[in-house]
Design a protein that fits this description.
The chain has 665 residues and is of the alpha/beta class. The chain is 35% helix and 19% strand. The chain binds zinc ion. The site of zinc ion has 4 residues, from loops.
């Protein structure tokens, strides 16, 4: 983003009385425009539905007997709001409906897919079919399903988590809405009839219980969507990917494979998860003080291993982190997570348990700013403060793109003097492996293609680069190059049993959601970004109506621009210049024009003096003259002055409010 390089510190500068040249005015305007452009660019990366809408028109006119597949999200990054729409005739199925938590915008919690396209096909939507319970696959449901109601299909655990996400996050949009759920057995190969589609859920191993690939049989052929998967022959729950069924489907003929590309840039295969159990036994058996294990909150196999080792060492287990409690709660109720009675203690009682009898399982291994491990290491946690002698186990690798935060929490823990075990440095730390990824590497991706032998292939998830590696791998596995497709978010494709045609782009983009669960406008976020770049300066001018002169010294309030107490000289000069500028302009123009001219004047003055362009808000308070509307109408500048009188009370209130705040400086 643009940073002005002139210092905002004005103390000690020799300030010249400004004679603002045309050149300075031009530069000030350009600087403001740059700020706006920067803010636009940042927000448009996310909230870009309106910009991208109909960028390319739909080019297929005749849709008869063609299957339309449209990607609304999921193709641009790791963990990005997965969602695709499958349409035939007057019926549609939505495949996954996620959110994206990797959003770095002020006050924004996550993004979901823009629903403008769904609006155009809402009469067709028959079902949401969901591969698994990670938020990038289910996080949009509670916002989108109430607007476009249809039953949600998934495995028992996926539905359990989704149901909880609706119940725990009531907003005004979903509080009166009761979602309809259909649970599918992952092992019986049941065929669910949804309109003219048939849907089958097939068990896969991932990093959450009951993950599934989905086979959708359509009038033009079978689509297999793998969801997120790996091919671990020995997962802890003894429920490996149903390779036999995938091969059967391959034998029967698969039209299209959509496959997970998250680790398509890593050779080999993900090591089996079963090797990790011994590491946890070893570390937990040896440790003397308290033990803290940070793991992904939804990975219940990992939670089971940690609990097994804690129980074997005679330790009680406390869980911390809202996400971890939610996922564990559903897993215990469904009999997936097995915990001997009396093992779990509330985190609030952790302090009452002897150090060598306690293990805390928590979130925050990725260095997430507000997660439990971060708060415990910074002394901001209600019940626990980490200290030397504790053992901390980070049972994860950095998620691609999150390496910096992952390192920061490592540094922080190291400074505290805890015994630290992390997966990437496990050999140095003196223990076995602590993590396996939930996403297939190239060897497994190759096997998935060999099992299903699709005619068409679309690599999904993981971003453009990893998807292109995956596409090349498909071509090596004998899929025709012209049948290997790399669409973008928003692209639609039309399939017959034999061919595929480009269908152009549909409306797509993001809706930004804040901490309350409400959608926040891109315009508001742009303002926040501009404020965060250069700050804001409010100038309150009290003008005598008759004389056109300032009645009092202007009130000047700065937020995020300059520290007033360090900038007396600049502020003094601005006051002097304001006096002159008001006198020159007030009588000459109407009030709206006066405000605009004052804003420009102040903007140019500040740029000339500091090289910065904060947002400037002039507030004009006109005193004197009759306040009767009739009288005002009779005068020469009726509109502006009537406004001034109406606004007077509001301005005074605002002034009191702002000045009240200013005294905190
Ligand atoms: Zn996943």
């Amino acid at each position: 983003m643009n940073q002005n390089n002139k210092s905002g510190q004005t103390t000690g500068h020799k300030l010249a009385s400004p004679t603002i040249s045309q050149k300075t005015r031009g530069a000030a305007i350009r600087a403001q425009r740059r700020n706006q452009d920067d803010a636009n660019k940042v927000v448009n990366q996310y909230a870009d539905a309106s910009q991208k809408t109909h960028r390319r028109a739909n080019i297929i006119k005749d849709e008869a007997e063609k299957l339309k597949l449209t990607f609304l999200g999921g193709l641009e990054d790791v963990g990005e709001k997965n969602m695709a729409v499958i349409e035939y005739d007057d019926q549609a199925i939505i495949l996954d409906c996620g959110n994206n938590l990797n959003i770095d915008l002020p006050g924004v919690n996550y993004e979901i897919n823009d629903t403008a396209y769904l609006e155009t096909i809402k009469h067709k939507i028959k079902a949401y079919v969901i591969t698994h319970g990670h938020l990038d696959h289910i996080g949009g449901l509670r916002h989108i399903v109430p607007k476009f109601p249809a039953p949600i299909y998934g495995s028992c655990y996926t539905i359990g988590i989704t149901e909880k996400s609706f119940a725990d996050n009531e907003t005004k949009d979903n509080k009166d809405f009761t979602p309809e759920f259909v649970i599918s057995n992952l092992d019986s190969h049941e065929q669910l009839k949804i309109g003219l589609f048939q849907v089958e859920f097939i068990r896969v191993t991932h990093a959450i219980p009951d993950a599934a690939a989905i086979c959708i049989t359509t009038p033009v052929g079978r689509i297999v969507a793998t969801g997120d998967f790996r091919l671990d022959p020995e997962p802890l729950d003894h429920r490996p990917t149903d390779i036999t069924r995938l091969k059967e489907l391959g034998d029967q003929g698969v039209l299209l494979l959509l496959s997970d590309s998250s680790y398509a840039d890593i050779e080999g295969r993900v090591p089996t998860e079963s090797t990790l159990q011994q590491t946890f036994y070893d570390i937990i058996d040896r440790a003397e003080g308290r033990i803290f294990v940070a793991a992904f909150s939804s990975n219940m196999n990992r939670a089971q291993m940690i609990i097994n080792a804690a129980v074997a060492a005679g330790r009680s287990v406390a869980l911390d982190g809202r996400g971890m409690l939610s996922y564990a709660d559903v897993a215990v109720r469904q009999g997936i997570l097995k915990v001997p009675k009396g093992t779990i203690v509330p985190i609030t009682q952790a302090a009452t348990i002897a150090d060598d009898k306690l293990l805390v399982m928590c979130t925050g291994g990725q260095g997430e700013p507000n997660a439990a491990l971060q708060r415990m290491s910074g002394g901001e946690h209600k019940s626990i403060k980490l200290h030397a002698g504790d053992t901390v186990v980070v049972s994860s690798s950095p998620i691609p793109g999150n390496e910096v935060r992952y390192d920061m929490i490592g540094n922080k823990l190291s400074k505290l003097g805890v015994h630290l075990f992390r997966h990437p440095t496990h050999e140095l730390d003196g223990c076995g492996a602590l993590h396996v990824s939930g996403h297939a590497r190239r060897g497994e991706l190759r096997e998935m293609i060999q099992l299903t032998r699709p005619k068409f292939f679309i690599p999904v998830h993981g971003g453009a680069l990893r998807r292109s590696y995956h596409a090349e791998l498909g071509i090596q596995e004998n899929i025709l190059r012209q049948n290997t497709l790399l669409p973008d978010n928003g692209d639609s494709l039309y399939f017959t049993g034999e061919a595929v045609e480009q269908g152009g782009q549909v409306s797509h983009g993001s809706l930004l959601v804040d901490q309350t669960g409400s959608v926040v406008s891109g315009l508001v976020v742009k303002d926040r970004l501009m404020l965060s770049e250069q700050g804001i300066l409010t100038v309150i001018l009290t003008v005598d109506k008759k004389s056109g002169q300032l009645l009092t010294s202007p009130d000047i309030i700065s937020r995020g621009f300059i520290a007033m107490r360090d900038s007396e000289e600049l502020v003094g000069l601005l006051r002097t210049e304001l006096r002159r500028a008001v006198q020159q302009r007030f009588k000459r123009v109407d009030l709206d024009r006066f405000k605009t001219e004052m804003r420009d004047f102040i903007t140019h003055f500040l740029f000339d003096q500091t090289g910065r362009s904060p947002i400037v808000i002039p507030v004009v308070n006109v005193i004197g003259g009759k306040v009767m509307t009739k009288t005002v109408h009779a005068e020469k500048q009726p509109t502006a002055e009537a406004k001034a009188v109406d606004d007077q009370k509001r301005f005074q209130e605002m002034r009191a409010r702002l000045l009240g705040q200013d005294q905190r400086d």
